[in-house]
Amino acid sequence: MSSIEKVARLAGVSTATVSRALAGKSTVSQATRLKVEAAAKELGYVVSSAASSLASGRTRNVGVVMPFLSGWFYVRVLKGAHMALADAGYDLTLYHLDASDGGTDLQRRRERVFDEFLRRQRVDGLIAVSLELQDAEIDKLHASGKPVVGIGGPLAGASTLSIDDTAVSMLATEHLVALGHSQIAYIGGSAHLDLDFHLPRRRLDGYTAALEQHGIASDPLMVRTADFTIEGGYNATLQLLGDPRVRPTAIFAASDEMAIGAILAARDLGRRVPEDLSVIGIDGHELGEFFGLTTISQFPETQGRLAVESLLVALNDAQAHPHHSALPFELKVRRSTAVAPQA
Amino acid sequence: MSSIEKVARLAGVSTATVSRALAGKSTVSQATRLKVEAAAKELGYVVSSAASSLASGRTRNVGVVMPFLSGWFYVRVLKGAHMALADAGYDLTLYHLDASDGGTDLQRRRERVFDEFLRRQRVDGLIAVSLELQDAEIDKLHASGKPVVGIGGPLAGASTLSIDDTAVSMLATEHLVALGHSQIAYIGGSAHLDLDFHLPRRRLDGYTAALEQHGIASDPLMVRTADFTIEGGYNATLQLLGDPRVRPTAIFAASDEMAIGAILAARDLGRRVPEDLSVIGIDGHELGEFFGLTTISQFPETQGRLAVESLLVALNDAQAHPHHSALPFELKVRRSTAVAPQA
DNA sequence: CTGAAAGCGCTAACAC
DNA sequence: GTGTTAGCGCTTTCAG
Fold first, then answer.
1. Is B189 helix (H, G, I), strand (E, B) or coil?
2. Which of A14, A16, A45, A302 measures 20 to 30 Å from A106, CA to CA?
3. pTM higher than 0.90, yes or no?
4. Nearest CA to CA, how far is B95 from chain A (Å)?
5. Residue B32 contacts strand D, CB under 7 A
């Protein structure tokens, strides 16, 4: 005897009514609902998701796909998404494409995610973080009819949430310009991290545009690339400050971790921050406060939460149109930036 | 017409044969298998996990429950588990109990995870990371008949993997003693983080035992607590080095992040590491290399992977007995520890 | 507002 | 080795 049947029997109603009552359908009388709930509780009944999914076509589960499973940003987004989903009674199944250490190679992994996993119908929808989906992948998703929301960039036919990276970069640069800096170096992402959405490029563009707008010539020697880590920022800064051809009074790093690396490198070279060198980052990393780092916060947990909300709308209203919205950011001034030293 | 039926028709066999062929059952002839695979591929067929689960009772999905979704250790374990599961063709659904920022409170969250989520039969088994399950929770899991493997401590009736925290701590302390240190301070976890498995306590015990074994009196003033973060380690070290009643020549921190905080604090106070002060951590954090930190690595990704392997064994062999095994660790000497300065 | 009954798409006996 | 068939435990028309 199936489980729901026991509940029905105990409550003295039909299985259909149990189903309706427990699903919160409004067409059940208050009295019946109470009886059913009591019976369910007494028996410790929880619907079988497999049976429910099969019958209804809905899984109450959403997939989250990320390129990496490390990195401050991704973990925070995941956390935000997870909490929002849990609050809505949804499960989260995680997919990531990181093949960095052994295991299957990247392309193969991507294929598996799109071909096998997502199409097993295990999820009702998908949140793609910082992933530029390939055309074939988008087609597969559309074919499956599952709504998708993307964080971080344009995604054909999907709702997307993204931060205006160019504006963020301009704001950071202008903060430095306003403090009187004209020798502003930039530490951005390296090309091989530019696979998805060209985030590194857009941030570089914002920096260049801001300089230009203020009549400051940009110097290729002032631009370095790194891998978004503290160590990467440290090394890039060593190069920057050690190069006799340039004399930056400020560094704008495209992530807080790199900015922290810059602060550490400056210290090791005997430069005072911010007296001799101003440093600004992007992210709103917890460590930023510890290092007194001026930054532009981008609230990744909120991004995760918003993505979930957007997805839930699409799930509950098949007519909802793909929609793009801009994510908030905020300049947070701390102690790592100050007026430019007198030449 | 159901999907599998189309494949069957195209391949000219019955749905049962399609099911068998695609599941890799050995009772299908090579020729038939090929025909079926070709048909499935042509139609882009992927089994519906809901239907398959309902019929077979297996979901090919495992749950991973963690107390937090931040913190270096947990993220690495998650990554390791995810990769191992993906390689085995399993999905991973994530549960975490972190209520740190708003949302439902902790106990409520725990209840939901155990009452609603896990019992929806969405998972075949569970991996619990650093979680001491309450009796009621264990009962619920047993009642559901799903295998559980725990990382980090004893779990009634489940297989567990854990590191010998006491031995790790003793090794770290003895490394310092062997370098001639006798004034060894300890920065451990604070009591409120001691909810699960008493990890902070066991590490403290190892430290105390090692000192005792070498005839070194332990001094309560040499023991500080922090929250496993860089900032926490920094502050604890400030207190330690600023206290006129003690003169530590070495600090043993119960995590690499705290150890890095200690190094930073020492620098800020003008103490040289390792000439004036040796510092050792536990973890094997990536940043450790950057800071030249001597540490005891504990390979969390491997822990995640091993947990998966252990769970898969239990899943494939109902007779498998709960089994405990010890996790590897390794002393990694870098530049932050050296012989004790002459008094 | 509630019940009866027909599936949802697959797997696993059981036959052959 | 392969086909037939009876469910797996629910949801959802369709009646009433």
1. strand
2. A302
3. yes
4. 8
5. yes
